[in-house]
UniProtKB/TrEMBL annotation:
It comes from Zancudomyces culisetae (Gut fungus). The lineage of its organism: Eukaryota, Fungi, Fungi incertae sedis, Zoopagomycota, Kickxellomycotina. This is Putative oxidoreductase. Keywords: NADP, Oxidoreductase. Belongs to the short-chain dehydrogenases/reductases (SDR) family. Pfam families: adh_short (PF00106). InterPro entries: NAD(P)-bd_dom_sf, Sc_DH/Rdtase_CS, SDR_fam.
Amino acid sequence: MFERIRNKTVVITGASSGFGNSIARIFVKYGANVVITARRLDRLEELKAELLDKHPEAKIHPLKLDVTDKAAVVEAFSKLPEWASEPDVLINNAGVALGFDPVSDLVEENITKMFDTNVKGVVFVTQQVLPSMKKRNEGVIINIGSLLGIHSVGNLSIYSATKHALRAITDSLRIETNSTKIRVVEVDPGMAETEFNLVRTGHDEELSKNMYNGVDLMTPEDVAEVTLFAASRHPRCVISQVSIAPQAQA
Ligand code: NDP
């Protein structure tokens, strides 16, 4: 079922933890070669060592990348190793939620960081792979959105706004490329156990745990499986959008 992903080159942003880490693991398990990117290079090197231990044949390139820094993104993609220079699949997964504030208390710095990462960062990275995908007339771009990009909840207005914006960009890109064989997918997860809440609460472990109180959370593997499924369909079909959530949030 996942055979089509074998020997493909897959670029994953935000691979140092959570969904991105699990996505890298499952793609390598099914024979893909991966460029794993994030700001924490030490985590990526650890992941590479673990993956090579199990899959010595895999090609794995850890790449330190801050998706908000356009010049750095351009430079990093211009220096990819030869085997990775024309990615078959891009997974825009890096994202942050900062704070849990009503609109009245929003902090400008957090607003900027969320839009820079969740919206501008996706555009900057996507722009690096589109020319070669267009030239080869093939490729898959998967954006990790959120259920909060479909509806909003209180105290997460800006995060939700960034994911609504991402959804709009994903839809536009799909239309812009629908005369080609480039497929554009949005995966919208609900609540899952990752470092996401720790980052959101400024690393307050107690608060972070309480936010998901009583919910049987998804694991990062649940989201990784859906992402692999979407990436490995026959090129004649595209899974435009898929939501996946814990039963309590469905
Ligand atoms: P994590 O916090 O575990 O992972 C976020 C990843 O994004 C990290 O690898 C982090 O790496 C990377 N990242 C953050 N900022 C940047 C940046 N400026 N440049 C490059 N990489 C960056 O959270 P999740 O795995 O849960 O989140 C992954 C995606 O899933 C996000 O887009 C999130 O919005 C979305 N999501 C998460 C849900 C959840 O409940 N967990 C629900 C719905 C959607 P580093 O810090 O090393 O740069």
